[in-house]
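Tokens as discussed.
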């Protein structure tokens, strides 16, 4: 299959091109001749900023240690070694916390599937220290949410993400809630969905049937099956514009494992993520030299995957942090359009229709007793117009779609 993927990379900075070249190297390989020139002339302060922004410094540390080149300043190798050491401690702490949480849930008969964190680092990289993670994400059945919250509070966690809801819209507008342990400094995200609405995804029971057991620790820790993990990682990365290259590096590592491609393609087609899977493969091919093989062809044949890959280069060209508002106006406008373009036609209709469902802002504008909340449906257009006239533009819908 033709691996020549046309994406605009010619105007990437020299430091970003060097970073991509290093991360694309196979174990034991060497840099290409032109890339050595990038290394000798690199602005190392900018290179360090890029590595930290994209959360790829553990992998870069490994590459630089293997190279042992005199052209790499000592302060750079020392800094990456220090960052790598700190990350190792962080990942070990998360591993210990993951084991404790899993133990408590298991004793109470609560099923949980860990989505990211140490189990993914061990699975994709063979070593928890080679991937960064700042929190623990796990998926539970929605019916267990109240019990899980009680257990986390009993373990010292404090709920950090209080969701205001009208008529239980939180169940589909949102997909997780956040807890923080004040003394341990650990954050956990409790998911009842993989992604926010509008999205189609497997039920918890389906994911549980296909789960894998991690060998990271002696206690059973469960995480997503390979094909489910691919779908989750590409949907998550796409929603964030692949603004951190670590997510694309995860895709490369996963693709290099033994994926069941016919099964994966059926799964992505069923849940309307084929175009997003194709986007991820195209970006990983162009940026990290991932070979595109014939079994991937069904995900790459549509134009939408190519368009989305081109759109994602907007984020690659910039150090965009979508979690630190306010965003620059240019980024904010582009991101809104990009998120909408990710949706299928049916999902776009669902998203537009969701504007008719009451929002918490309606409750703020005209407080009504809970027994009368159903009246927000006919009143919603008027309440929305009132806020517009009051110069309080409603941004809630976009925020929900942008939610992590």
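Sequence:
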């Amino acid at each position: 299959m033709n691996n020549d993927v046309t994406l605009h990379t010619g105007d990437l900075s020299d430091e970003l091109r060097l970073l991509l070249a290093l991360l694309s190297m196979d174990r034991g390989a060497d840099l290409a001749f032109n890339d050595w020139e990038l290394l000798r002339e690199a602005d190392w302060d900018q290179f360090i900023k890029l590595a930290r922004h994209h959360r790829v410094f553990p992998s870069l540390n490994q590459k630089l240690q293997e190279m042992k080149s005199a052209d790499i300043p000592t302060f750079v190798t020392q800094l990456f070694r220090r960052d790598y050491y700190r990350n190792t401690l962080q990942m070990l702490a998360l591993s210990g916390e993951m084991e404790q949480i899993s133990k408590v849930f298991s004793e109470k008969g609560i099923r949980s599937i860990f989505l990211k964190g140490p189990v993914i680092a061990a699975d994709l990289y063979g070593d928890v220290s080679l991937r960064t993670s700042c929190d623990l994400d796990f998926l539970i059945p929605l019916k267990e949410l109240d019990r899980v919250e009680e257990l986390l509070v009993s373990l010292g966690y404090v709920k950090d993400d209080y969701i205001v809801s009208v008529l239980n819209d939180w169940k589909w507008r949102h997909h997780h809630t956040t807890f923080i342990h004040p003394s341990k400094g650990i954050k956990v995200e409790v998911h009842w969905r993989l992604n926010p609405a509008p999205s189609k995804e497997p039920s918890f029971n389906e994911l549980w049937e296909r789960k894998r057991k991690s060998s990271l620790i002696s206690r059973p820790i469960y995480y997503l099956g390979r094909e489910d993990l691919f779908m989750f990682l590409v949907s998550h990365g796409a929603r964030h514009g692949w603004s951190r290259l670590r997510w694309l590096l995860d895709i490369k590592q996963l693709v290099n494992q033994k994926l069941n491609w016919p099964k994966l393609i059926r799964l992505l087609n069923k849940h309307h993520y084929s175009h997003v899977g194709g986007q991820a493969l195209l970006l990983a091919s162009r940026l990290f030299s991932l070979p595109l093989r014939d079994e991937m062809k069904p995900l790459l044949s549509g134009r939408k995957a190519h368009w989305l890959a081109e759109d994602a280069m907007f984020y690659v060209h910039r150090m965009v942090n979508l979690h630190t508002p306010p965003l620059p106006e240019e980024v904010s406008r582009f991101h809104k359009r990009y998120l909408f373009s990710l949706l299928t036609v049916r999902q776009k209709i669902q998203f537009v229709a969701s504007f008719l469902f009451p929002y918490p802002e309606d409750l703020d504008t005209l407080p009504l007793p809970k027994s009368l909340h159903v009246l927000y449906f006919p009143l919603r257009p008027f309440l929305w117009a009132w806020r517009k006239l009051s110069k309080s533009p409603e941004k809630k819908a976009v925020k929900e779609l942008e939610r992590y």
